[in-house]
Amino acid sequence: MSDGELDVLAGAGERVPAHLADALRGLGLIDHHVHGCFTEAIDRARFEDCLNEGSPEPMPGFMTQFDSQIGFAIRRWCAPLVGAPPLVDANGYWAARSALAPAELNARMLRAAGVEHWVIDTGFQGGTISGLDRMAEESGAPASEILRLETMAEELMRRDTAPGDFADAFRAALVEALPRIVGVKTICAYRCGFDIDWRRPADEEVVRAVAAWIARDGENPRLDDPLLAAFLVHAAAELGLPIQIHVGFGDRDLDLHRTNPMLLLGLLREPSIARSSIMLLHCYPYHREAGYLAQAFANVYYDIGLAINYVGARAPHVVAEALELGPFAKQLYSSDAFGVPEFHLLGSTLWRRSMGLVLGRWVADGDWSESDAIRVARMIGADNARRAYGLG
Amino acid sequence: MSDGELDVLAGAGERVPAHLADALRGLGLIDHHVHGCFTEAIDRARFEDCLNEGSPEPMPGFMTQFDSQIGFAIRRWCAPLVGAPPLVDANGYWAARSALAPAELNARMLRAAGVEHWVIDTGFQGGTISGLDRMAEESGAPASEILRLETMAEELMRRDTAPGDFADAFRAALVEALPRIVGVKTICAYRCGFDIDWRRPADEEVVRAVAAWIARDGENPRLDDPLLAAFLVHAAAELGLPIQIHVGFGDRDLDLHRTNPMLLLGLLREPSIARSSIMLLHCYPYHREAGYLAQAFANVYYDIGLAINYVGARAPHVVAEALELGPFAKQLYSSDAFGVPEFHLLGSTLWRRSMGLVLGRWVADGDWSESDAIRVARMIGADNARRAYGLG
Amino acid sequence: MSDGELDVLAGAGERVPAHLADALRGLGLIDHHVHGCFTEAIDRARFEDCLNEGSPEPMPGFMTQFDSQIGFAIRRWCAPLVGAPPLVDANGYWAARSALAPAELNARMLRAAGVEHWVIDTGFQGGTISGLDRMAEESGAPASEILRLETMAEELMRRDTAPGDFADAFRAALVEALPRIVGVKTICAYRCGFDIDWRRPADEEVVRAVAAWIARDGENPRLDDPLLAAFLVHAAAELGLPIQIHVGFGDRDLDLHRTNPMLLLGLLREPSIARSSIMLLHCYPYHREAGYLAQAFANVYYDIGLAINYVGARAPHVVAEALELGPFAKQLYSSDAFGVPEFHLLGSTLWRRSMGLVLGRWVADGDWSESDAIRVARMIGADNARRAYGLG
């Protein structure tokens, strides 16, 4: 964390033991699920849209998206980075932010996030946001790639892959990608939900499903067939790749209750999946269920990324709820930031602050030792991801 | 709030910043979902029944309903209004309360609630509880009406409306009610649950459904046909009326899990609904889901009424959970009080106290500014409802 | 609680009013759902397996199960009982524990738990753990028996009971067991989940289901037929016996979401069930739903056993969540400890501590009186179970 500008434990200092506070301020995080930053300036309407994950609609005229936990958190924690006082009002924040060029803004926020390694999902809106190289350059930290399974499958379709060739072409493309990626991600939550048949499909079933898909979607393919969703995941599992799964909170295109991670039991019980680490992303409001699955399955990990940003001042409570059943070796840190670099910073800031308040309370009460608290913070903040993804 | 008798921040004073505390004590609330008060004295058995929302059964002999969070909260917060000390025992409370005539009791509790506008559901047990005029008179604050859709539909049936006339008759009755109502309410949660086909039914489908309904129920009609439930809501939406929907906590006639607001996605995605404000009522234990929907849909509002009363000392935690994803312009205050005027007071008291403790903590920690806290309290306590219902 | 060795309110003393603290330290608990202790020494791998309820897999090599809330809680609260300092590291704890013979270990932990009556489920792995007599002897407190319905039914099958005789044989066996048991338990959560037809099956349906069961399972019968699950419960209800139902948290053999207690509505609404007390066990993460059902049905009780142990430092929050809708006369205490005597102690310790912190806060804030807090602690800790099971 950069000194002077931002103290993630401001106003909470006396409640966090000193060594734990130091460790949390200085911890180099691995943000295991994140996206790039906008490379061009955006206008205020676009910015406010970014403060609402759930809705694709224009904001109602009677309100501003700043009037939300995430809006307040940005005014509190990001204002110092743009030269404005903490909790400056929305107009003041916007004015100060707008005075900075995108590259400068990105660099300030990304560096202040104290992330030592970004693990980036490159499969969404790649054109408008920074790629691996630019993220690494602007942040001063290395970046690794996560391949989005549906994006690659849809690309194969756009290249007129024949139904009979699809399964092999997909597997070959995965193998070809292996040297440059550290894992894959599925967004089947947005396509068919989790309550599907998760058994490994036979190749002839894939042929039929692809043929039907082509017949339906033509040149604008959108993979939402459950059988193909299962095929993609099994193909990645055959290579033993870490598999990220979008779970819970997201925009309203998904049926939130159909992304309850308990509905993944059919997949998790498949013996052929056991070699892959399964990363449950976000999970809110099903993070207790995710913690349970991380206890019940040796290969399941989880995070509460995105949710932390959106609940703002409530982050300590959500962080605490995520510290119930899940073994400490199985939780990961992520921001799931996209586009707006405030989110990269906010994820880091709210997580460090929340861990300080939550673990600090337990240390003060004698429930945990301070050295345990530091160790667990390092496990969740970096060590678990380093091990699970095999990072440097 | 009346001074001297009741300080909603008693025992928590030093944890709530002074201006926020003043604002919360003095805020004139809009109780956007509430019922009238009993006009006649009730006996203790009836009173205790009112302390249990879930059960229609007689209370087991081994217990008193006073031994619950709501019972303790009444003894704590309502006792001073009947001239008894805070936390007087149950018998003492009952004795002090019984010494007051219903009109006096109602007036004391209603006025102490500090509500400046009541928005009253008149569709349930109208005969035994006070109507708009009496509520206004006893409380000294104006009252507006919410029309219960199922009640009006069942009344049409009792007047022998022919199946072929029902749709038009219902729409005409709604139009006729327009000048005197500010919105409508559906209790389909109690009739068919939310997991139904929410598309707008064609009029000929309505004809068939009404005919089947008459054949089944005869002179004692109870509307529980899903198609008719959808018809009622769409009819109200065509007029752009605010639509209240009972969600979650209620008596065991409903299947709680079938009133998860996520099951309303089919309705909320209907383009023809977008013009109406949709008010999700109660929501517990699905208030996090409700906050998500309020973010995801520009026309969705939510409250945690009724639940606040029933969880008593836990109200601050439930209030805090409701302050996660939902934009602050989309949450409303309600007590959902019915019959017993203690509930009208308790909703107000526990909400003010909880907001003081929760927002006060954030202000003390530097997460929120005090002026933001006051502004958000006013939005949720009154401004949002005033705007959404178009009240004075 | 034994003095000197273990103070359940250590580090929290000033936050718990003195009389409440004394009452909680000295309260003789009824542990209404618990199992025996291992009678032989176990190795560390087995011990660590016991720290993971969810998974039947071997622990991954990269972690220790001690790195979890339950692991930290054992190091914190059980270490003094084996002569090690609080929060001794895992190796140190294991070394100190291993120096004690099983009988000595059991006696120390069981006596320090301060339980005055054990209500023991004898239907699981009876051979490896202590029975009623040994539990009573090692703990110095009496033990009563809960009969596991599925275990008894499967035993009848192994004795070649004919399909046509099964229903009567089962009922007769229940009657025969009556003098020695205080209730029964069903683990249908593990067999078919709750979303089944809960109506009382006719005897001829039972005949057919048993015949099909024999044909399928042969000499290794496992009762998972929904109709037979319902038959077992109805047979117990006919005798008016208290019926324990495993709900929620358990190993991954169950589909957690299919053990949501709301799915028991069909059973709870059966009039023939009303005479039996229904005890919802564990309930996490559905403890709010369980509290609702305890309000909605006069005969429903609930506990948060097992979960308290597994969430460790988070126990106060889970205890608090369980104190929302459920009437105080309807909540019970249990540890659901199995095998490892640390769990018998931990349940008691974390419950006492959590009640002290949660109720103490409410007393300090003036929400509850201290005498009410003491009374509610005694109701949940012992009185409710004494009444519901008709114990001494």
Automatic annotation (TrEMBL), chains A, B, C:
Q: Which segments constitute the Amidohydrolase-related domain?
A: 151-391
Do you know which InterPro entries this protein is assigned to? Amidohydro-rel, Metal_Hydrolase
Entries under Pfam families matching the protein: Amidohydro_2 (PF04909)
> This chain belongs to which protein, by name?
Amidohydrolase family protein
Tell me which species this is from: Luethyella okanaganae
